[in-house]
Design goal:
The complex is a heterodimer of chains A (294) and B (307).
Chain A lengths: L1 H33 L3 H7 L11 H8 L2 H33 L6 H13 L4 H12 L6 H4 L6 H11 L4 H9 L4 H12 L1 H17 L2 H6 L8 H10 L1 H8 L15 H36 L1
Helix pairs in contact in A: 1-15, 3-15, 4-5, 4-8, 4-11, 8-11, 8-15, 9-10, 11-15, 13-14, 13-15
Chain B lengths: L1 H33 L10 E2 L5 H4 L1 E2 L3 H8 L2 H33 L6 H8 L6 H12 L5 H8 L14 H26 L3 H9 L4 H26 L6 H7 L7 H4 L2 H10 L4 H29 L7
Antiparallel strand pairs in B: 1-2
């Protein structure tokens, strides 16, 4: 009996292992290309393992990190500011939504969740931002649209409605106002929920290319994801931005191209790659709570 | 008496406090979601950038007439629904299979699988496009390198629409199945162990337990998740169709969905009226679908209703 279980477990491992390998293989390829010698790659194509190992792509980029470093700053700024403000605003409104004794909470719920049902769509939004708000080429427009994300508000609401009413009432008895009850009692009690949702906000900003694709053309404000997209779609753009300070007397075709592209992608995905095993727990909890309760 | 008075006073203050907490979020939502709504009239205008949405001349329904009589609407609607339907079926099937398999193993040994399956969900489509490029690049991609080594002709993948009938589902699965698998897996490990113990006593084997207990117990969750996805069937994963295909125009017959058409009509073709008309068509149908799916979900399970 147990022998049969063991052998069928073995087959399950083979099957799941194969799927896992397929999932991870493309990432291995990108890593391999980024550590390969450019000339070898040009001649023999990409390979699963570097045929001729080289750090040239990374070396060149670290030598003139100008645009990448700049985009890193842009993305970091947007992600940090956006997730801090976003988390604050959404958790405050989520708390109000849980307060069924507050008559307007029904109206506020409707106002926050209506966009899940109906949206103006790209064209009115685009023209409104460009023509009326005049926020083209600003960091503001990379932040504001994602500050209140309905399903994250829903997730926060789930965490907050678990707080017993009696605790909030005891706050009233101590003479605390609603604002201080929220900051001194409710927020500290939902710390792990806030951490989870904060992570989702952060990743959402870090990974976003949509808003910058629409609104950013100024090189000084290009975030990482848009930089990556441009590098992939345009080899000229790549050479001129990645190696802007190398000098004009150098033969541009001798510079790492494909290998540098892949190295850039890894520098952008890197933080998530390394942090993922540690933050996974929170993300899993958020997704399962959110999908089953939401 | 003074007690009552202070209570009332507090009640007032309380409300002010709650309004204060809700206000910043409400301002953001109004600014980003409600203010653009009047702009929908662009769908009924010959939009002129200089004149703006209000002063541009009316065009009645001509934008819509164009979309629906030239076959554009039919094509992008067909692509959108076809792809999303396929994605829903494939991703939920694979996710269920993987969740059931993981459930057969010990909790410790699945940790690594869970991490790997879940991870692609948190990579952006831009990064995914790089992974795709490493495989599919015409000159040096891994697949073409292999083909050459096998003595076969190479393929210019980004100009080969038929190939993308397979590539698109694979890319979608790669990014999304792990997310759904984790939801199913969590539901599976949450099942009442007594169900399985009772089956053990009756001498059920592993496969019987899967088909008689695990799958039936999850049926409702599956129906709900699929209904939610069907409610969204009119909206596409723009990143997949735009970034992952590198916006290659040769592929449009296969890859052009409503969202990519709207984007292109607005920013490449410079026809905001047409783009807005297609967008409004999408928003209205999507609204109907979400309401329908929500109604069905509510019927099945009062707990998981959204509205």
């Amino acid at each position: 009996m147990s022998k049969r279980v063991n052998s069928s477990n073995f087959f399950i491992h083979i099957l799941l292992g194969a799927i896992a390998v397929l999932c991870i293989l493309p990432i291995v390829f990108v890593v391999s290309i980024s550590f390969s010698d450019e000339q070898d790659v040009l001649k023999n194509g990409y390979a699963a393992f570097p045929r001729v190992f080289s750090l040239e792509a990374y070396r060149m980029m670290l030598k003139s990190p100008g645009q990448i470093l700049h985009s890193y700053l842009v993305t970091t700024f947007v992600s940090v500011v956006g997730s801090v403000i976003g988390l604050t605003l959404s958790s405050m409104v989520a708390y109000v939504i849980t307060r069924k004794d507050f008559k307007a909470s029904r109206f506020i719920t409707l106002a926050v969740f209506f966009p899940l049902l109906f949206q103006a769509g790209l064209v009115p939004f685009y023209i409104y931002v460009v023509k009326f708000l005049k926020l083209k080429d600003t960091l503001t427009i990379l932040i504001i649209p994602y500050l209140v994300i309905p399903w994250l508000v829903l997730l926060l609401k789930g965490y907050m409605s678990k707080i017993p009413k009696s605790i909030i009432e005891s706050g009233w008895l101590d003479g605390a106002g609603e604002v201080s009850i929220f900051f001194r009692i409710v927020a500290p009690m939902t710390k792990s929920g806030l951490a989870t949702v904060g992570l989702f906000y952060f990743l959402n900003y870090w990974n976003d290319w949509w808003l910058s694709l629409l609104f950013i053309s100024d090189k000084a404000k290009i975030p990482l994801q848009l930089l990556l997209q441009r590098i992939l779609s345009n080899a000229e753009f790549m050479r001129s931005t990645l190696f802007q300070s190398v000098g004009v007397d150098i033969d541009l075709t001798k510079l790492p191209g494909d290998t540098a592209r892949m190295a850039t992608a890894l520098l952008v995905a890197g933080p998530i790659l390394f942090a993922f095993p540690f933050i996974q727990r929170f993300l899993v909890r958020g997704i399962t709570v959110g999908s089953i309760k939401g | 008496m003074p007690n009552l008075l202070s209570k009332r006073k507090r009640g007032l203050l309380d409300h002010r406090g709650l309004w204060l907490l809700a206000l910043p979020a409400l301002v953001v939502v109004v600014l980003m979601q409600y203010m653009p709504l009047p702009g929908l009239i662009i769908a009924f205008k010959n939009y002129n950038y200089g004149l703006g949405p209000w002063k541009s001349s009316w065009s009645g329904f001509s934008n819509f007439t164009y979309l629906f009589t030239t076959g554009v609407a039919a094509r992008i609607t067909y692509n959108t629904i076809k792809w999303n339907f396929l994605f829903i079926v494939l991703s939920h099937s694979l996710a269920m299979l993987v969740a059931l398999l993981m459930n057969e193993l010990s909790r410790r040994s699945i940790k690594i699988y869970q991490t790997i399956f879940f991870f692609p969900y948190f990579l952006s489509w831009v990064i995914a496009a790089y992974l795709g490029f490493a495989l599919l690049s015409g000159d040096r991609g891994i697949i073409n390198t292999l083909l050459t080594r096998m003595g076969r002709d190479t393929v210019i993948w980004y100009a080969q629409p038929d190939a993308w009938r397979v590539i698109l589902p694979l890319a979608y699965l790669w990014k999304h199945f792990g997310y759904i698998a984790i939801i199913y897996f969590t539901a599976l490990i949450g099942l009442d162990p007594q169900l399985f113990e009772a089956a053990d006593i009756e001498g059920a084997n592993r496969i019987q337990k899967v088909f008689r207990i695990s799958i039936p117990q999850l049926k409702q969750l599956v129906v709900i998740l699929v209904m939610i996805d069907i409610g969204r069937i009119f909206r596409s994963d723009f990143g997949l169709f735009f970034q992952f295909t590198r916006n290659s125009s040769t592929l449009y017959p296969v890859t052009d969905v409503i969202d990519t058409y709207v984007y292109r009509a607005l920013l490449t073709l410079g026809d905001p009226g047409m783009a807005a008309a297609a967008g409004l068509y999408q928003s209205v149908v999507a609204l109907v679908l979400v309401l329908l799916s929500n109604k069905l979900i509510t019927k099945l399970d009062e707990e998981s209703r959204v509205f």
